[in-house]
Amino acid sequence: MVREPVPVIAVACGRPGLGGSVVSALVALAAMAQGARVLWLEAYAPEGGPETLAARVASAGAHDLVVVDAGSRMHGIAAACTLSTECTLLLVVGDARADLAASFAVAKFASNLAYPPALSVVSNRVDPTSGTWAANALANACARFLDRAMAVVGHVPDDPTLAAALAAGMPIADAAHGSPASEAAALLIESLLAPPRFSSFLPAGQ
After folding, report:
1. pTM of this prediction?
2. Domain covering 8-194, topology
3. Minimal CA–CA distance to 85: which of 115, 112, 62?
4. Looking at the DSSP assignment, which residues form a beta bridge with residue 91?
């Protein structure tokens, strides 16, 4: 019997500091709230860890969905995107043109992998108007220059309360509970899990 590939959401940024790690955790928490068994992990093993990302996923037991904080380095992004043939690369963008150029470079790199992931984009920690412009600009560039469709799946607002709680050392599951960022992630995961890609992991009736 052939085992079905486990879906992967690889969350990446064009550069550090755009909030990809927090977005990846919010995505994982939102998917868990939808009823999925989620494995969340970073693309890089802890310092000195010998296991590859694929080995860590394989040893983690049963799960319905893998969410990877893939970071901004091409090596980690490639490792995350090649975990499964059912992978979505979620690019987190701000509103600076330099950030968009770096994010486009990531999308181009991922599109040249042996099994290119589906492409999606979310704006983070910017006002909705600027975020929508940035996400659509990146999607349009991918369509024009890469001939690749990129889904604009949402916007995560700037959330100072969440940022302060995380800075104080509160676990993200507690810090994010009921926050505007968490509410945005709930809408985001609905787009990411929409049929046909992840339809088997949605609760009955959705």
Report:
1. 0.89
2. Rossmann fold (3.40.50)
3. 115
4. 12, 121
- Pair of tokens at residue 37: 């068994």
Distance CA 136, CA 144 (A): 12
pLDDT digits (tens, 9 = 90+) for 40-84: 999 976 654 556 888 888 888 889 999 999 999 999 999 999 999
- What are the Cα distances from residue 45, in Å, to 12, 98, 158? 16, 29, 29
Sorted by sequence, the CB contacts under 8 Å of residue 35 that are 6+ apart come out as 201, 203
C-alpha span between 101 and 116 (Å, rounded): 19
Token couple for 145? 């220059």
List residues bridging with 90 in a β-sheet: 11, 120
Q: Rounded to whole angstroms, how far apart are CA atoms 178 and 162?
A: 10
Q: Are 193 and 201 in contact (CB under 8 A)?
A: yes
| Per-residue DSSP letter, 14 | S
Domain ranges of the chain: 8-194
CB 98 within 8 A of CB 69: no
Over residues 8-29, the pLDDT tens digits come to 999 999 999 999 999 999 999 9
φ, ψ dihedrals at 93, nearest 5°: -125, 155
β partners of residue 104: none
Taking CA atoms, 98 is separated from 9, 56, 93, 110, in Å, by 24, 34, 10, 19
CA 94, CA 89: separation in Å to the nearest integer? 16
